[in-house]
Amino acid sequence: MTSLDIQISVEAENWPSEDELLVLTSRVLNPAVDFLKAEEKQPFPKTPTELSLVFTDDASIREINAEWREKDTPTNVLSFPAYPLEPGGMPGPMLGDIVIAHETVEREALDLDKSFEDHLTHLLVHGFLHLFGYDHTDTEEAEEMEGLETRILAKLGLSDPYAGQEPL
């Protein structure tokens, strides 16, 4: 039984279809759930937890970022937990929302010399961990979160996106 009920909304051009994004996000996030359950002993409800994914553009994410974080600039990914959750806590029936901007993901993928899909995969995992209470506001938190990201991405066949960098 899957642990996630993924809801997709495409609100900008250049994204694949909702069906294609559902396949991609399921391929990324269901193994992330399995990893958290097995490796981190993350509890999950018996019924699937709903997760909303919004695929948008720089203009839209800039407005959201300005409104909710007081940062008037586009960003790659924003996460909005439905309920406050500490790492290791039991999620509720709605996990939250992840919003991703196409132009920023594309620009960063080019800068990092990665495929768009690989970078999107990393950002999905990153945003997903935020919904579970993980953060990178200080070095200790960043090391924990980045370590989880790296281990989940390795399970998905991707290399460490933080290799050679200091924690965020």
TrEMBL record:
Cofactor binding note of this UniProt entry: Binds 1 zinc ion.
One Pfam family matching this protein: YbeY
Gene Ontology CC entries for this record: cytoplasm
Location (main, coarse): cytoplasm
Co-factor(s): Zn(2+)
Subcellular compartments: Cytoplasm
Residues that, per the record, bind Zn(2+): 126, 130, 136
Keyword Ribosomal protein on entry: no
MF annotations from Gene Ontology: metalloendopeptidase activity; RNA endonuclease activity; zinc ion binding
InterPro entries to which the protein is assigned, alphabetical: MetalPrtase_cat_dom_sf_prd, YbeY, YbeY_CS
Keyword terms of this UniProt record: Cytoplasm, Endonuclease, Hydrolase, Metal-binding, Nuclease, Ribosome biogenesis, rRNA processing, Zinc
Main enzyme class: hydrolase
Record EC number: 3.1.-.-
Source taxon at top rank: Bacteria
Any Gene Ontology biological process: rRNA processing
Family according to the record: Belongs to the endoribonuclease YbeY family.
Task performed by this protein: Single strand-specific metallo-endoribonuclease involved in late-stage 70S ribosome quality control and in maturation of the 3' terminus of the 16S rRNA.
Protein name: Endoribonuclease YbeY
Annotated organism of origin: Agrobacterium bohemicum
Primary gene name: ybeY
